[in-house]
Amino acid sequence: MSCCAASSSSPVLANPRGGFAASCSTRRNHRVIFLGSRQFSPIIYSPARRASSRLSRREVIAFAGQQSWDIGRFVRTLYFFNGPPNPLKIVESILSSFTGSAPGEVPKKMESSDVVLVTGATGGVGRRVVDILWNKGIPARNEEKARSMLGPDVDLIIGDVTKENSLDPKYFKGIKKVVNAVSVIVGPKEGDTPDRQKYKQGIKFFEPEIKGPSPEMVEYLGMQNLINAVKNSVGLTEGKLLFGGTGNLSGKIVWGALDDVVMGGVSESTFQIQPTGSETDGPTGLFKGTVSTSNNGGFTSIRTKNFTVPEDLSAYDGIELRVKGDGRRYKLIVRTSFEWDTVGYIASFDTTKGEWQSVKLPFSSLNPVFRARTMPDAAPFDASNVTSLQLMFSKFEYDGKLNPTFTEGPFELPFSSIRAYINEPITPRFVHVSSAGVTRPERPGLDLSKQPPAVRMNKELGSILTYKLKGEDLIRESGIPYTIVRPCALTEEPAGADLIFDQGDNITGKISREEIAFICVAALASPNAVEKTFEVKSTVPFSEPFVVDPSNPPPEKDYDVYFKELKAGITGKEALEGTPAQV
């Protein structure tokens, strides 16, 4: 069923605030290490001093009052995150610290987008949805038929929901919401006019047959393909799990310690798995260690290795951590580049001692920081290209400000999950146009003679309603915030008639395609429509045409009034399964 959719590997030095730099200068037989533009005077290396002091090959000794620096741990840290050092990157890092230049790779600018994908955009309902969205100023992403119907200003995508390979992921980049009006084609056996006038009268006026791919291919397998194509773009009600649960505690995300040893410090941390450490006695991650300000240090952290493929979190609004606090302030650092020494996007968070708590950090709260300084001219955070995560406990915040909760010594922060979240109230991300009657063909005790033709002829039409119901179930099971609209018989009449919304799949009647389009667009913006499945018809009987007086048009409807009265979880399947409907 074709559809048209409208719609560094260098050894670097780090300061205790989380930034990185490396530089060296030769003065006769002394090599002095610098931190950014500040001389790191306590650490001095001299060949003569080495000969007289018998220094260990693994240590660099500081002046009195300083502690030994473990160069072996320094090298292991670099190798863990970057692999074998690249000499070119070492030179680049050294030169950049002299010049004070910004990171070599500028993060990509995030393009904000609220694009709505309308599938089936050349159909009776889909075409009207596009018109409404366009008039509202909402971009809709969707060649000859489509262009002539939708005009030159709509972005067109030609695809086929029955063919998974035609749904190229690039089509769905930036898609935030979907209105799905794709449906199997039913037409008169004897044929129809080019503009489908017989079809528009309704199947009660002709002998119908399926035209093109079967209901199973369109309504069920096609739905499966569409959900798989858009799932990452539109997001899930429960959010996207980055770390946590039995799956991600087994090593899909690889954490390693990144402490102030990279700038000569002696603080040390580690990441561990506690098999029964969570609040439910399940497994949890643990960030623990000992922090010291010796050798001008003062920070510890754990950082993930770069993800093999960047995480696209553009469907979400922030990152939520579930942690057991210790009364200290920590930082979350999110990176959008595979480069080692580049801008990180940082937010600090406070914890309550001894309590499990959820910490929500909106993407809008992340500050771009490079080498411990905020970068006001940095590109906005790009949630579609997250490459690594880092948790840090540090003496410093940014730009020289101090962490008010900092104390030297041991610490630990258990964290059971890290996930991307959608802000509440959540609105539907997937609005689907189905059909009234989908549960009736198999309903026991139903008098089929009193049912619409599609119910009576379900088997003759390739089990069309049966597969529509299976497609609905795929949406309900997907985790995507959804609304399922089940219109009664569709007409070409104008919108504006009084309406009846119902649940349980019992009503019959008619409703205009234009009205259904308005309902779909209204549902996209309504928290009251989330996880609702409902039937809808007009109060005008079949025997009476509905017309609108242009000089006295009906008032605009507030569809949210109807959505508020609906209940989540009622589908009409209760009659099939012998279970009571939710109240």
What does this structure look like?
With 583 residues, this protein is of the alpha+beta class. It has 2 domains: 115-237 and 426-575, 3-Layer(aba) Sandwich (Rossmann fold), CATH 3.40.50; 240-421, Jelly Rolls, CATH 2.60.120.430. The protein contains 13 helices and 32 strands. It has a 7-stranded antiparallel beta sheet with strand order 15-18-25-20-21-23-24, covered by helices on one side. The chain is elongated and about 90 Å long. The two termini are 37 Å apart.
What's the arrangement of secondary structure elements?
Layout: E1 2-6, E2 13-14, E3 20-21, E4 23-27, E5 30-35, E6 38-45, H1 47-53, E7 59-60, E8 69-70, H2 71-82, H3 87-99, E9 115-119, H4 124-135, H5 144-150, E10 156-160, E11 175-180, E12 185-188, H6 197-201, E13 208-211, H7 215-234, E14 240-244, H8 245-248, E15 255-257, E16 268-274, E17 284-291, E18 299-304, E19 318-324, E20 329-335, E21 344-350, E22 356-362, E23 367-370, E24 373-374, E25 388-394, E26 409-421, E27 430-433, H9 453-456, H10 464-478, E28 482-487, E29 489-491, E30 499-502, E31 510-512, H11 513-524, E32 532-538, H12 560-565, H13 574-577
Parallel strand pairs: 9-11, 11-27, 27-28, 28-32, 29-31
Antiparallel strand pairs: 1-10, 2-3, 4-5, 5-6, 7-8, 12-13, 14-26, 15-18, 16-17, 17-26, 18-25, 19-22, 19-26, 20-21, 20-25, 21-23, 23-24, 30-32
